[in-house]
Amino acid sequence: MTAVVVYSSDYCPFCSRAKHLLASKGVAFDEIKVDGKPQVRAEMAQKAGRTSVPQIWVGTTHVGGCDDLFALDRAGKLDALLRA
């Protein structure tokens, strides 16, 4: 399975939803927490072009945030991306 990276925050309900979806699919992911780490958040923002969390990558593909992840799943494209 393709490597998955999730930038998140402890107090973010969207982060929790995204991580729950991935976990429900049996996907292991690397979680990078940005809480109290302005340099890590700035690195995430530079890579993603967004400052909000979560920001999710599947391999080299930037999926986006929670809504983007769920939209990909509803479209039936998430599983294929995870297997690529």
Structural notes for this entry:
By secondary structure, the protein is an alpha+beta fold. It has one domain: 3-Layer(aba) Sandwich (Glutaredoxin), CATH 3.40.30. Helices cover 45% and strands 20% of the residues. The chain has 4 helices and 4 strands, in the order E-H-E-H-E-E-H-H. Strands 2-1-3-4 form a 4-stranded mixed sheet, with helices on both faces. Strand 3 and strand 4 (61-64) form a beta hairpin. The chain is globular and about 35 Å long. The termini are close together.
List keywords for this structure.
45% helix; alpha+beta; Glutaredoxin; 84 residues; 4-stranded mixed beta sheet
What is the H level of CATH, i.e. the homologous superfamily? Glutaredoxin
Which fold name corresponds to the CATH topology? Glutaredoxin
Tell the overall outline.
Answer: globular
Number of strands: 4
Number of helices: 4
Question: Can you tell me the number of structural domains?
Answer: 1
Q: What is the CATH C-level name? A: Alpha Beta
Measured on Cα atoms, how large is the radius of gyration?
A: 12 Å
The helix-and-strand class reads alpha+beta
Please report which band the strand proportion falls in: under 5%, 5-15%, 15-25%, 25-35%, 35-45% or over 45%.
15-25%
CATH 2nd-level architecture? 3-Layer(aba) Sandwich
